[in-house]
Amino acid sequence: xxxxxGVGPVTENKMHHLGIKVGADLRQKSLIELTxxxxxxxxxxxxxxxxxxxxxxxxxxxxxxxxxxxxxxxDITNTDELISNLNLLAETVFANLxxxxxxxxxxxxxxxxxxxxxxxxxxxxxSHITELSQIKTLIPELLSRTNAGKxxxxxxxxxxxxxxxxxxxxxxxQFDLPLGF
Length: 181
Fold this sequence. Notes:
Elements: H1 9-17, H2 23-27, H3 31-38, H4 40-48, E1 65-76, H5 79-99, E2 102-103, E3 106-113, E4 118-124, H6 132-144, E5 153-161, E6 164-165, H7 166-170
Antiparallel strand pairs: 1-5, 2-6, 3-4, 3-5
Helix pairs in contact: 3-4, 5-6
């Protein structure tokens, strides 16, 4: 296995003989010098050492969750204030779900207390969550299953997961709730 990403053992040895051991060494070499030693790859090494890469970004990662969090300047013990802030986060999450054509079954609340201990509480629905009001209804119930109000809270997070995509729903899959988007 090569010691440097994108460079095999033969090229690595060649680079070491030219005094190239780290990216800064590679950046010191001219385009002419690199292409004379490495051919077409020299052009690639020259540009990549300077942060230039015109290859398209191809993401094949499937999103598994979508959330939003906030950290407070001062710890909060008032549960009504926490619910109000969680509702604002839920609005952002819901808008992002719509933008990404994602419909969750699971909503997770995460809170971090003043002592940095973390608690997560989740609710998974039998049917998909298609309305913001469904998320907002879950928030007080999830929060009640934590020590919020008894301990100061410094961070809150709402995350949606366990997705179906609107495209899949439109292709004939049946769900209990109407698509309210």
